[in-house]
Each structure stands twice: as structure tokens, then as C-alpha cells.
Amino acid sequence: MRHISYGGDEPSAAWLAKAQQVTEELNAATTKAQRDKIIDDNSKIWGELKDWLRKLSNGKCWFSEANDAYSHWHVEHFRPKKSAKNLDGTEREGYWWLAFDWKNFRLCGSVGNTKKGTYFPLCPGSQVATSSTRYLVQDEICFLLDPTREGDPEHLSYNEDGVAIPMPGLDDWPKERATKSIERYNLNDYEPIREARQKRWNICREKILQARAALAAKPPTVTTQERQRAAFEAIQQMLDPAEPFTAVVRECLNSSGFRWAQRIAAAK
Question: What's the rounded Cα separation, in Å, for the pair 217 and 197?
Fold first, then answer.
């Protein structure tokens, strides 16, 4: 996971007008059944933003950073639209008024979205937004990590086996958030994504070792300097935002123990 910034961008005026019209229909509805039907009948509207959301993440899943190892793309509602499941499994009112709010959309592979479903617990004691207290949305303390929230992606780390883990050294609450997010976003149980992350780690480690050998060569030669440059260039390319699993590459660099590798990771 890496931070997704909207960068001041937003969907087209035509799309916004369409979404606003349906939201007004939702506000006018008087029963949950009526609202659910309006949402279902207009589900294609958020699907129209799939390509726009892909551009924000350079074509990658917002939760896994995978290109194609995380199944089909879904436009996921971070705050569930029809009902929201609490930590204990009970349900509360869904965020139906955000069903067509583009800031509530996240691009997610179907593997992660299927397991997350309506699960959206809050920290015990958190404010809880309802349709009559919508302004409390900004005061909710969410359990799940949000790629659009700066700092949340840094709660996750990865190891050489391609396994997502809580960032070492986290306090109890951030660690609990990371652990639950790994589980609900299904970041480890789907074998293809673990294998893809492990492969990326191994490629990065190979480049690190190539760079190390070139740096340690005595006396240095034009050949070893070129090998060093090529290895550094390959590592930096793997950290490009358009590349998959950049967070995995960063963790590989940081775990190497080499200051130069850690500086490359920090610079990106």
C-alpha cells in the first residue's frame, strides 16, 4: 500500500452532476428498501470512474499495489453503502448518502473487496456518523487503513517471503489496525499476490547484491562502475510509482543494512 493523492483532481462535471442527481433521489427516499433499490439501479455510475481511479494509482490496486495479481478491478466503497459491520459482527446503518461520493471510492482487486465487504468497524468510543449526523464522518476513527489517508500506508511492512506484516515498532492501536487491515483486505491469504511480492523482493535483493559487489571492487574499474550504475538505476526504476509493489521494494532496501540502499528508499 502507498498513499493515493487526488492531487486536486476530480471527476468530470458531467459525472458529478449525474452523481448529485442520484444522491438527491436517495435523500428524498423514505425507506431503506427504496434507497437500496436506487443504489442498485445506478451502480453503473461508480463503475464509470474505474479508469479515472486507475490513473490516480498508475493502474494499481489501491490496497495491494498489484497490477494483475489481485484479480478483477472493483470500485470499492470505503464506507459501505447499505450497511456497516462492526467489530463484533453486528451491523449499523450504512453510509448510503456517500454511495455516489467519489471521495468514498477506492480501486480494489476483487480478492480484497470480496473479503472486506461491508466490514467497517470503528475504534471503540469513536464518533459514529449516521444519516442524521453526517458531519461526524470526519470525526470517525476508522479501524481499517485507508490508502487516501496520509500516514496509514506506513503502518504496513513486508518480509522476504512476500508476507504483509504490521510495521515493526508500532504501538498497540496502530498495530491492531494494521493486523485487521491485512486480514480484511486479504493481503496474505491469496497465494498469487504473496508470490508476486516475494518475486519482487528477490529481484530487488539481487540488484542490491550486484551494487554491493561493484562498490566493493578494488581497484574500481570502468566495468564495475557501470555495473554499479546499472544496479542503482534498476532499483530506482522499481521504486517508480507506476511499478508494482514499491512498498515491498522499499522494505527490502531498508532491511539490507546498507546505508546507501536505505537512502535510495528514503529518497523515493
Answer: 31
| Grid cell digits, residue 185 | 483486505
**pLDDT, the chain, mean:** 94
| Peptide bond before residue 219 is cis, with ω within 30 degrees of 0 | yes
Mean pLDDT over 252-263 rounds to 96
Strand, helix or coil at 9? coil
Given a contact cutoff of 8 angstroms between Cβ atoms, the answer to whether 79 and 17 are in contact is no
Burial code (b: 16+ CB inside 10 Å, e: under 16) for 69-83 equals bbbebbbbbbbbbbb
Q: What is the pLDDT of residue 69?
A: 47
| Residues contacting residue 20 through CB under 8 Å, at least 6 positions apart | 100
Maximal C-alpha separation, the chain: 80
Distances (CA, A) of 107 to 53, 65, 77, 191: 6, 10, 9, 20
> Confidence class of residue 267 from pLDDT cuts 50, 70 and 90?
confident
In terms of Cβ atoms closer than 10 Å to its own Cβ (0-12, 13-18, 19+), residue 142 is middle
Q: Give tens-digit pLDDT for 11-69.
A: 999 999 999 999 999 999 999 999 999 999 999 999 999 999 999 999 999 999 998 74
Report d(CA 10, CA 58) in Å as an integer.
16
90, three cell numbers: 453486528
